[in-house]
């Protein structure tokens, strides 16, 4: 049994705006080995060097021959130019990532946007399995996405489609990390939960959130979520506020794509129905008749390993092994 698993391994790489997670993944999508660090590695060279070291380490840890490496990258791909056109959270803009990493690693590789890889895994194996029309939102540092329409994945004319995080939802709103203003991810991402938590910590004396801030703890989306699950009312309020903003963007998605499902993944999904129920209420109230009624808003199936499993699924599919 060990030999069968060993003969069908790939390396899945989740290169996100906050974390870098590398995993050895078998054909049943089991993650056999994980390596994780911050994706803040300084400049482009530092990030690529660290990434190469982690993949090499994963290949060494694999129980047999590795078929290739799949990368899910938080950036806008330009497949015609063979580069990452933009990457608001990583120093990869203008980088011919696939060529550089292929040369660096010396093994077959496959590269796509991390929202697309997550959508691929959820569509083929997870929460959207069997759906002909579905949308994925990866809600973490920012918001990424993926689209399945009429039974096929949609990536746009140059490979950079489904960037839902950069829809304008607030005219002349706050400046996004990409330089634009009023973008969806500023108001509805995991980082947005942290910002809402900071505001409420300052106006909710006696709350666990205020106490944590007073102790010098960084008010992040993860901390707010932890305290919300413990019953802290200020933290719950922060998540509900962001959930409503998440729902506002979903209204446009439901109206434009008419999907059967909107699958929500990424780190922020740890908040569960505290985040999704307010979004569902907004969609039910604001989406056009029949469009809002016929879409289900569901959590992704693969949890914390979704990025790695998505990247591994891409590798299996493109290498003809999936």
Task: Walk me through this protein's architecture.
The chain contains 11 helices and 12 strands. It has 322 residues and is of the alpha/beta class. Helix 4 crosses helix 11 (306-318) and helix 8 (221-229) crosses helix 9. The chain folds into 2 domains: 2-119 and 305-318, ATPase, nucleotide binding domain (Nucleotidyltransferase, domain 5), CATH 3.30.420; 129-300, ATPase, nucleotide binding domain (Nucleotidyltransferase, domain 5). It is globular, with a radius of gyration of 19 Å. The protein starts with a helix and ends with a helix.
Q: What is the CATH superfamily label of the largest domain?
A: ATPase, nucleotide binding domain
Number of individual domains: 2
Largest sheet: 5 strands, mixed
**How many H/I helical runs?**
11
Total count of strands: 12
Query: In what order do the strands lie side by side in the largest sheet?
Result: 3-2-1-4-7
- How large a portion of the residues is in β-strands, by DSSP E? 15-25%
**SSE class:** alpha/beta
CATH class of the largest domain, named Alpha Beta
């Amino acid at each position: 049994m060990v030999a069968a698993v060993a003969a069908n391994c790939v390396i899945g790489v989740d290169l996100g705006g906050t974390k870098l997670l590398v995993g050895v993944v078998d054909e049943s999508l089991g993650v056999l080995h994980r390596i994780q660090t911050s994706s803040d590695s300084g400049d482009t060279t530092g990030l690529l060097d660290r990434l190469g070291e982690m993949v090499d380490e994963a290949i060494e840890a694999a129980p047999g021959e590795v078929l290739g490496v799949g990368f899910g990258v938080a950036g806008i791909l330009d497949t015609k130019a063979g580069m990452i056109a933009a990457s608001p959270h990583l120093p990869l803009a203008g980088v011919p990532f696939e060529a550089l990493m292929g040369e660096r690693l010396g093994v077959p590789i496959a590269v796509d946007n991390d929202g697309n890889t997550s959508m691929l895994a959820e569509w083929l194996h997870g929460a959207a399995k069997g759906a002909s029309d579905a949308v994925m939102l990866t809600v973490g540092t920012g918001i990424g996405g993926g689209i399945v329409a009429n039974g096929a994945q949609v990536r746009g004319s140059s490979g950079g489609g489904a960037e839902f995080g950069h829809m304008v939802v607030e005219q002349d709103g706050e400046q996004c990390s990409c330089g634009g203003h009023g973008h969806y991810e500023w108001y509805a991402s995991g980082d947005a939960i942290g910002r809402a938590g900071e505001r409420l910590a300052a106006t909710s004396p006696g709350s666990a959130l205020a106490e944590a801030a007073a102790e010098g703890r960084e008010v992040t989306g993860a901390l707010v979520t932890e305290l919300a699950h413990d019953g802290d009312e200020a933290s719950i309020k922060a998540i509900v506020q962001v959930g409503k903003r998440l729902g506002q963007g979903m209204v446009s998605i439901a109206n434009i794509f008419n999907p059967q499902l909107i699958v929500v993944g990424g780190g922020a999904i740890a908040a569960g129905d505290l985040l999704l129920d307010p979004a569902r209420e907004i969609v039910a109230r604001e989406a056009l008749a029949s469009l809002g009624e016929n879409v289900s808003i569901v959590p992704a199936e693969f949890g914390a390993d979704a990025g790695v499993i998505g990247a591994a699924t891409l590798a299996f599919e493109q290498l003809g092994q999936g």
